[in-house]
Write a structure and sequence with these properties.
With 238 residues, the protein is mainly α. The chain contains nine helices and no strands. Helix content is 43%, strand content 0%.
Length: 238
């Protein structure tokens, strides 16, 4: 299985391994490119600022490019009982499934298309909402349909200069941001418990206005770009 780094997920995996004490369990760091602990300061502490983390991450990457883990072989023996059916009691909204490819082949094709045609212009186009300038791969990354290592290898295959600040480097930086957050939550588990990273921000007096919240959710704030974004989200899921 692939490791997850949030507090509850880590506790769950410990319990599962304990329940399967007579079964060999092997974990992998496939939800990140470099596992937590691989990028540390000279004092063996976790970085707290992104840019130094990014520089150290790139240096570590150049020392050895992590390979993608091969898919496990299909087992020809043994039997597994079917999992019980589960009813999810939350409201569902139908979206165009073309926006969220489920099959791995479709996600890989979307990744290849973006790395070939979009990653090089990502820096300029991502700031224009009317332009399809982003990868739209976040759902596949979040669910494990794609590995960030797949993203890295495909990006460098199509945009080899990305590692040295050339075309594609800004999208690479976004992948590193994703890594940064996962490394942080490993060393500061309070981040998984609704606690702020900067302690004093917990004393900020936020507004609690249900009417304003509902207006934002429905795209009726009166701010055109905000409302357009929320209406698109409500109608397409993106």
């Amino acid at each position: 299985y692939n490791y997850q780094y949030e507090v509850n997920e880590r506790a769950r995996d410990v319990e599962v391994e304990r329940a399967l004490r007579n079964v060999v369990c092997e974990g992998f760091d496939d939800s990140v490119i470099l596992p937590p602990g691989a990028v540390m300061t000279g004092n063996h502490e976790m970085y707290k600022v992104f840019t130094p983390f990014k520089n150290a991450w790139l240096k570590r990457l150049r020392e050895g490019m992590p390979e993608c883990v091969a898919a496990p072989k299909v087992r020809s023996s043994g039997s597994i009982e079917p999992a019980p059916s589960i009813t999810l009691n939350y409201p569902r909204q139908s979206f165009d499934t073309a926006h969220f490819p489920v099959e791995e082949k479709a996600a890989i094709a979307q990744l290849r298309q973006f790395c070939q045609n979009g990653a090089g212009e990502y820096e300029q186009q991502r700031d224009f909402p009317a332009v399809e300038g982003t990868s739209r791969l976040s759902a596949s990354l979040a669910t494990g349909g794609l590995s960030p290592r797949q993203c890295l290898h495909r990006l460098l295959a199509e945009q080899p200069q990305a590692l040295d600040g050339g075309a594609g480097s800004v999208w690479l930086s976004e992948l590193i941001w994703r890594e940064f957050y996962r490394h942080l939550m490993t060393y500061y588990p309070s981040l998984c418990k609704h606690c702020p990273f900067i302690a004093w921000t917990d004393r900020v007096q936020w507004q609690s206005n249900p009417a304003h919240l509902q207006a934002w959710q429905k795209g009726k704030t009166g701010y055109p770009i905000v409302d357009a974004a929320m209406r698109q989200l409500n109608s397409t899921g993106w």
